[in-house]
């Protein structure tokens, strides 16, 4: 591996919240056991909603998060809770005092939030007239349903600034909102800042809370979500009978520092973040092309100074949509050529759903933990592979595997593609 940057970038801390649990070790163990984090949403089932399942933490877990992060809870935002809890784990792993010196920043993938649809209904009902919405009545009667904190938390810039305040660490803040590639691009931008010596540390990743009626209906209208399937079988990437993806929620955070800085203080680098590739296929809003994915993976390997022979594992975008899975499979085939069927490829989304702006962050954490433990988790619910999906998707269960270099793909609407390369520390 030949780096084009003056600094090698180490991952020194991790934090994770998913529907499978709170914490990196717990979630990774559940993934390796092939457990299902998709559950039925009772309110959606009772309303006979087209989509009735999602991957989100249980009500008990949400209450626990409120106790763990009471300040974040004042914003009435689940993604703020997820991010705050993940931050606590990441900082506990390295010691927050380590980041008190030097230049730092917070780079997060995040989408614009939404006011609860039930609140919106009441707000518009109070201000409705036979001729439409009365803006004066809306102003007078509706604001009691919201707080200033709640309104603020819907803006993308809010989340990186919140984490800066909660940690007591000032620094650069940046929110990246670019569909399903948001977190990979946030991590990639943070990586380059640290690699170029512009920052001494960065806390990066993403958080999202997409499980609501508005987003479920929108993605259903686009034909992207799995409908009419039980929670146990709903998310089935690469399967012949897959029907679409399942919405999920959570957060993933990584602490990035120059490797030299970690070693100097006697710290433990978990892995290296070696490269970042990003591009767009210039395609239709819901279209994914194999050529665009191929070019992004190729660019990431070139930036890392690696060849395809150096790749040992790929954490796929693997959504379970009819279009994504064959396109990503072909891109991997074209990239790795004769090695394509020898390299394990898995989908974290098969167990926790698609976390949209946070998906890549969670999968980046999974990649790092896979390198740390020398193990890759299975792809759940792959019973009969689509003939167009003919790679090694690790269907038999978790596999022990020494990993030198791993790719983590994230593909967004409009052909927005991104790839991270993680490497074992020398």
Please, could you describe this protein's structure?
The strands form four sheets. Strands 1, 2, 5, 8, 9, 10, 11, 12, 13, 16 and 17 form an eleven-stranded mixed β-sheet that branches. The protein has a two-stranded antiparallel sheet with strand order 3-4. The mean pLDDT is 93. The protein is built from 16 helices and 17 strands. α5 (78-94) crosses α9 (158-167). By secondary structure, it is of the alpha+beta class. The chain is globular. The longest helix has 17 residues, at 78-94. A hairpin with a 2-residue loop joins β1 (9-18) and β2.
Beta-strand segment tally = 17
Distance between the termini: 10 Å
Let me know the average pLDDT: 93
Which stretches are poorly predicted, pLDDT < 50 over at least 5 residues? none
> From the helix content, strand content and strand pairing, which structural class follows?
alpha+beta
Reported for the largest beta sheet, the result is: 11 strands, mixed
In percent, how much strand structure appears in the residues? 15-25%
Taken from the alpha-carbon principal axes, the silhouette is: globular
Radius of gyration: 21 Å
